[in-house]
Inverse folding.
């Protein structure tokens, strides 16, 4: 999934791609830079300068194993941090620790 937006404030589309096991390719601006892990063993996608987009697209298309690895990492990351169960647990913690009114 490629969405080289400049100025995206959060980037829900990148999370949705990762939830589907598809590693996103985005530019190193704003929201995507906070959402996508681009390097290391737990990389979930690619972040590139707008001028390097063509090179990264070519590498991602040709790199089946790397694409699969990043897709798996992204899906695991979303399941661990953004699943309904995880989100509900965070809300319950907030409710449980909120002072009574």
């Amino acid at each position: 999934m490629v969405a080289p937006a400049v100025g995206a404030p959060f980037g829900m589309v990148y999370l949705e791609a990762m939830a589907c096991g598809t590693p996103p390719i985005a530019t190193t601006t704003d929201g995507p830079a906070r959402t996508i892990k681009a390097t290391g063993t737990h990389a979930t996608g690619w972040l590139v300068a707008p001028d390097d987009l063509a090179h990264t697209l070519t590498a991602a298309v040709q790199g089946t194993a790397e694409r699969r690895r990043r897709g798996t990492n992204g899906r695991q990351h979303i399941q661990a941090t953004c699943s309904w169960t995880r989100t509900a647990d965070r809300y319950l913690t907030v409710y449980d620790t909120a002072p009574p009114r």
Remarks:
- The mean pLDDT is 91.
- Residues 12-97 form a domain with the Rossmann fold fold (CATH 3.40.50.2000).
